[in-house]
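Could you join me in thinking about how sequence relates to backbone shape in a protein? Label the sequence line and the structure token line clearly, so we can match residues to local backbone shapes. Once you have written the record down, we can walk along the chain together.
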Amino acid sequence: MLLQTVPRAHLRNVVSKGWSARTFTAGNAALKAKTSSKTQHTHKVTLVPGDGVGKELSESVKAVFAASNAPVEWEQFDLSGHVTTNDALMKETLASLRRNKVGLKGILYTPVSRTGHTSFNVSMRKDLDIFASISLVNNIPGVPSRFKDVDLAIIRENTEGEYSGLEHQSHPGVVESLKIVTRYKTERIARFAFDFALRNNRKQVTCIHKANIMKLGDGLFLRTCQEIAEEYKSTGITFNNMIVDNASMQLVSRPQQFDVLVLPNLYGSILSNIGAGLIGSPAIVPGANFGREYAVFEPGCRHVGSDIGGTNTANPTAMILSSVMMLRHLGQHDHANRISNAVYSTIRDGKVKTKDIGGHSTTREFTDAVIKAL
């Protein structure tokens, strides 16, 4: 008997808030979205700029939203992973997210040192149970890339797996790290992936795993996805599975074979970064995190960008497109369409490009060009 999970109706509502993975292609799909009747309603949104390039990217989003008169009121919290005394601010940030239900965030620094604090990014996802991460990987006209016709969605379980953080040293020089996989959480991420595919006209879901070696943990993940796939047979969505090392090779050989990928936490992190390499830059991959009650939007490739923070050279595309996903989630389709079209036309025009996509423009120059294109 299957464990009770998040009601399927709720998940379908989550993945059909008016935005689609296809919306972020360069075509006219976005223009077909209907304008929400709630356009005049102002939404309070929690904003966490993050570390590294986060502040610059957030300022870019705020400038674009102001220029387009997007009905969003920001509650900003300058949380930082570089500071170990941020517990009080973390609590305030979480309280704001619980009030507002929606947030936009940059990536927070996590120290590598053994004595460093735990990841604020992971803590936030666990505390709010925002269990489903989506990274949208598709070509953008005007961005040089190794492949064409890449259009895939990477759906990653966000709250367990190797990111459970359960480690101990059983003997000097011997560390045991626990990977947690539960049927409950695998069921809900699998249903989320199939409902996402169903609502966004996707045709295939691929489960990525390492069940040939981790027969219990990844075996449970694979078997549970297979069982959930049976429930969706009548929809016409096909299901297959692939071992993670083979999937990595297949992604860099023929990425067009993939549509929706559902996978555990660590594999999702790795393949999202491979996906970014396929299309030319991690700075053009938007992302979102969904739970039962809350949605937090952030770039799909979770890079802090500490090396270029404060240099006015970062590409704000992923942050802006993540905020576009947020607007669609809030029902603000008209504003979302205007902003996404402005971003795509700016990149396609080719006159203003940041360094990562073959240009020499600054963050502010790119932002100004997007605003001019609104």
Observations:
- The CA atoms of residues 151 and 303 lie 21 Å apart.
- The domain at 146-279 is CATH 3.40.718.10 (Isopropylmalate Dehydrogenase).
- The chain has two domains: 42-136+282-373, 146-279.
